Amino acid sequence: MFKQNQGVTSSPKSRLLGFATLLGLITLFVFAFFLTDPDVRLHPTTGEEIGQFDAVRLLYLHVPMAIIGPYLAPLVGAVASVGYLIKRTPWWDVTAHAAIEVGAIFCGLVLVQGSIWGRPVWNTWWEWGDVRIMTTLILFLMLLSYLALRRVVADEHKQARRSAIVALVAAVNLPIINRSVEWWESRTLHQKSTLSELKIEDLTFFTLMMGIVVFLMLFTWLVLHRFRLGWLEKESLKQEALTAIEERRAEAATNEEETS
Amino acid sequence: MKQFMHDLLLVAKKDLRIEIRSRVIINQVVPFAILVLVLFGFALDADQKTLRTFSPGLFWIAVLLSLLLAIQRSVSLETVNDSLTGLKLAGLSPVAIFFGKSIAIFTQIVFLELLLTGGIIIFYGSVIEDPALWVVAGLVTALAVSVTGTLYGALASGLEVRETLLPILLLPVLAPVLIGATKAYSGALGETVSNGWQWTGLLSLFALIAATLGSLAYGVLVEE
Amino acid sequence: MNVIELRGAMVFLGRFPALAGVNLTVESGEIVALQGANGAGKTTLLKLCAGLLPLGSGSGKVLGHDLFTEQQSIRRSVAMLGHTSGLYEDLTARENVIFWAQASGLDKATAHERAENAIRRMGVEERLLSLPVSRLSAGQKRRTSLASLTVRRPELWLLDEPHSGLDQDGREAIDSFIKEVVGVGGTVIIASHELDRVSSLSPRVITVAGGIALENEDQ
To answer: How would you class A26 by CB atoms within 10 Å of its CB: exposed for 0-12, middle for 13-18, buried for 19 or more?
Structure first.
């Protein structure tokens, strides 16, 4: 599905996926920002207007990103890293790199966007002690250090091995971080599950589900392209190596003529 | 097994003997750790009550910062004259090297913890209210950071940017240890009523996982 | 018995083919000098023979052990002196030699005994033995390195530029050491880009160029 080496990162199928993702994003924006209602509820006793009002619209982006960034992407990255440590083939390494790089972007966005949403709704930019915020932040930093490590190790095999170990440790550490933050302040502003409050036929629910599907498509599309870019890099290195072997042989041949 | 213990102790004793000879820990890391405690005092406006309240966290931050120096030192011992190759040629198992180096770091960290405890008692007016928790949590945390540090030292070794890379690789991974150790010491120093033993349990779990993963991964790294 | 047998050995450093198909046979008791320019592959060849680098393709045996599957056994029976001393700068010369003796699996008593012998044999000056290695001269360091390798009683010696940076005295000490090793049935491979330094040992000379080893016919 992934392999191809024509010097470009797109293929007819991925172009189709990209186009569908773009359409999906436009539709999602229309639903999230125009068709759905703002969150307004009446307080059961006082009759005051309460709720998230227009800020709720950000959730249609936040929830899908928060599923992919801190959960799906590191999971894919960790599985691919284990795959690399077992199989030692570049396919696994490039896959892990692609998933983690895109995951880091999603994590970063989810933190910024969550912070923007938190200001009107929770009345704070940042909530120390919230399990999900803190876990995502620490994960984000670990993903950044993974990318930093990849950048500075020149040798291809060393790079793959060391990165795989870093990704694996991060993934194993994640539940411990989560548990420690949970015990730490034992408070969270996050809803247990927003979904249980919603009815299936609700437009809100539909939009949220659509958001998840569209963002999964976006994630796949981005990872696919990042993978192909990484693969092209490997291919070009391989080509360089073949040239280097020939040069090495030529060098030896000249020397042989001189000696004899 | 006998051979394994022989190799492990050999490496640990060698690292510690070098430390005793070169006095890098005594002459550089200890003053640095004390300096960190003093700097917190300046930053928090020399208010002993505030300092005492936050002493568990400040204590462990001083330990983690000193750990970074100790790890850098431990790595450079093997890389400066490429002694690691010699260890490989001698047929030492990577697992023995890993635990040997970890034990040397562990000993240095425990030593630092003792001095820093003296530091927070003198500077911040802290009191050890639960000695058992203080000892156990101190040892378990030292173990957790030593094995993790040894692994990450190896991950960053041989790179020109080792000094700058190590902190960003290691510190996020140690985030739960900082939280746990701070909570455990809050209990031990009587600053808050905390379930310190529960935290010590979490720290032990971390140490166990780090030791297992570390010893496996170290072999992969040494064989590059 | 052939100490080294390489057939079409290739070694990749990353993607770079540092060795591009080496054929080499070395018999027991030989002194072999590898000569060639910097970057020709001399050091890589030595490291391959020490079991420190993975064989990319081809086949090879060192001391009868396969290079693909028995790297561990090879490592234990060769001594390699690289560009770096391998010593711990803050320990004394004596402590270093004893450490390396113990590291090769010897018990304490044997390690001490062999270390003292090795130190005497290499002629490390007695008054320097209790100084940290960092304070020794290049020549004394080189002697200490060799002493720390002899304690393991290796059958094959791989020496990378052993004469570099040494004075006349030091170079002669290295030469007489090599003769001694060969005298008792050991095998020595020396990498050197200055052939006249090793000529007194009348070695078999092999030119390494472009990652390939070429036998010099006139030798």
So the answer is: exposed
| Three state DSSP letters for C78-140 | EEEECCCCCCCCCCEHHHHHHHHHHHCCCCHHHHHHHHHHHHHHHCCCHHHCCCEHHHCCHHH
B164 touches chain C (CB under 8 A): no
Residue B194 main-chain phi, psi, to 5 deg? -130, 155
Q: Compute how many other C-beta atoms are within 10 angstroms of the C-beta atom of residue B178.
A: 18
Spatial separation of the C-alpha atoms in residues A109 and A65, rounded to whole Å:
8
CATH topology of domain C2-215: Rossmann fold (3.40.50)
Rounded to two decimals, the ipTM of the complex is 0.90
How close C9 gets to chain B, by Cα (Å)? 19
B198 touches chain A (CB under 8 A): yes
The domain limits of chain A are: 24-187+198-259
C117 vs chain B: nearest CA distance in angstroms? 19
Residue A88 contacts C where some CB pair is shorter than 8 Å: no
Q: What is the pLDDT along chain C (219 residues), one digit of tens a residue?
A: 789 999 999 998 877 888 988 999 999 999 999 988 888 889 999 999 999 999 988 999 999 999 999 888 999 999 999 889 999 999 999 999 999 999 998 999 999 999 999 999 888 888 889 999 999 998 899 999 999 999 989 999 999 999 888 888 888 888 999 999 999 889 999 998 777 777 888 888 898 888 888 876 544
Query: Can you state the angle between helices A73-87 and A90-121, rounded to 10 degrees?
Result: 160
- List CB contacts of C66: < 8 A, sequence separation 6 or more: C59, C60
CA C58 to CA C65: how far, in whole Å? 15
User: Which chains have at least 3 CB atom pairs separated by less than 8 Å from chain A?
Assistant: B, C
H helices within A153-202, ranges in order? 156-185
C12 touches chain B (CB under 8 A): no
Gyration radius of chain A's alpha carbons:
24
Q: Which residues contact C8 (CB under 8 A, 6 or more apart)?
A: C21, C22, C23, C57, C58, C59
For chains B and C, count residue pairs whose Cβ atoms are closer than 8 Å.
65
Cα angle B196, B198, B204; round to 5: 105
Token readout for B44 is 């928090």
How distant is the Cα of C15 from the closest Cα of chain A, in angstroms?
Answer: 5
The beta-carbon neighbor of C86 closest among B10, B18, B86 is: B86
